[in-house]
Amino acid sequence: QVQLVESGGASVQAGGSLRLSCASSRSISSFDSMSWYRQAPGQQRDAVATITRAFRTNYTASVLGRFTISRDNAKDTVYLQMNNLRPEDTAVYYCNAVIQTNKGWQRFNNHYWGLGTQVTVSS
Predict the structure, then answer these.
(1) Alpha helix positions (H), the chain
(2) What band does 53 get if pLDDT is binned at 50, 70 and 90?
């Protein structure tokens, strides 16, 4: 079983910075990718940033240039550095890990989730 524990959420003013952490109970080198998602009230959960085992990164357009995802394999932790925060960044942020498995010709993505950490940005 995999446990992902997020931390670092807080209330900040617009323009401020936060660093979220996601600590894994399992070696993060075993995951094909790790991501940060966020969900605002009444909204769907959307991907914010992803980092693969090969350290390739991908970001949703609204956070490009402001957020940075990184990983420390020695600490089994993934981070999300968030700068120049905006009120629209307010959401619960979730850590996600994916392990891909193959069954015959089919590939499956096995998702693991943390419980989330609240980020609130006031104007």
Answers:
(1) none
(2) very high
